[in-house]
Amino acid sequence: MTRCAGWVACVLAGLVVGAGGVQAQTVEGPDYGSRNVFGVMAEYSNDSSHIVLGVSEGVNLGGLGVQYQRRLISNRRLVFSYTMEFRPAVVESNPTETQTFVETFPVYSKVTDPAQLTALKCVASAVPYHITQRDPPVQYSGAEFTACGRETNYALGFAPFGMRLNFRPHRRVQPTVSTFEGLILSTKPLPVASAGSFNFTFDIGAGVEYYRTQTSSLRVEFQVQHYSNDYTAGANPGVDNGIVKVTYSFGR
Questions:
Q1: How many angstroms separate the CA atoms of 121 and 233, rounded?
Q2: 157 vs 50: CA distance, rounded Å
Q3: Looking at CB atoms within 10 Å, which of 88, 90, 162, 223 has the fewest?
Q4: pLDDT band for position 123 (50/70/90)?
């Protein structure tokens, strides 16, 4: 995961440096934005699926955080900035499954497994069974039931390596793309018990930034976030979330 993320970041950096070098002699400061930008953000994802490398399904995620951004290259066509993000409040909801065994013949009995296990994917089901014992000859009948639930985990995220491109910086409405690389620390292993509480993260996305004033803006983005533990734990089931992120920024 980290090798892929680093490759993407290097390609974007090379493109930006090349574009900045062509017009470095005639750089004009952007009409909107500041050299140093601070922001507060909120994000939400109502599902996870296989988008990049993830295999876990049904993971919901929400978070609050802060951002810092410093302008490095600017001209009349684009602004390239270093950016970092800290998310002290991340809430993740994972699917769980509970097994119940109900025997209906020859004697009725019901046993529920006390363990509520986190699952990569939970599908409610009822599977009947019929078993015949030969000596002495006895037939057993019943069903195995799977019930789905949710488990809430809390985490914090820190992404110190990021970059952002804003296009048409002289316009009040600006298209923007970004990428972040970092980590996430959780109170429990994510997304299943055999995984780890320490995961690496990689985000890439695009959106629109609207400047309310010369130095303050509201940005709406859609980002794909992947996290996994890079096989530092017993299991490494990656998670891919499509995240909607809203950020209010102000410059100094």
A1: 20
A2: 21
A3: 88
A4: confident
SS3 annotation, the chain: CHHHHHHHHHHHHHHHHHHHHHCHHHCCCCCCCCCEEEEEEEEEECCECCCCCCCCCCCEEEEEEEEEEEEEEECCCEEEEEEEEEEEEEEEEEEEEEEEEEEEECCCEEEECCCCEECCCCCCEEEEEEEEECCCCEEEEEEEEEEEEEEEEEEEEEEEEEEEEEECCCCCEEEEEEEEEEEEEEEEEECCCCCEEEEEEEEEEEEEEEECCCCEEEEEEEEEEEEECCCCCCCCCCEEEEEEEEEEEEEC
Q: Any idea which fold 2-87+152-251 has?
A: Porin (2.40.160)
Backbone angles phi, psi at 11, to 5 degrees: -65, -45
Task: Quickly tell me which residue has 């493109």 as its tokens.
Answer: 15
Q: For residue 134, what pLDDT is reported?
A: 80
C-alpha span between 209 and 248 (Å, rounded): 9
**11-37 pLDDT, tens per residue?**
445 544 444 444 433 444 557 989 999
* Euclidean distance between CA atoms 20 and 118, whole angstroms: 48
Domain coordinates in residue numbering, the chain: 2-87+152-251, 95-150
Q: Compute CA distances 12 → 17, 29, 178, whole Å.
A: 9, 21, 9
Query: Does pTM top 0.85 for this prediction?
Result: no
CB 144 within 8 A of CB 126: yes
Distance between CA atoms of 29 and 33, rounded to whole angstroms? 9
Task: Report the residue count for the chain.
Answer: 252
What is the distance between the alpha carbons of residues 230 and 243, in angstroms, rounded to a whole number? 22
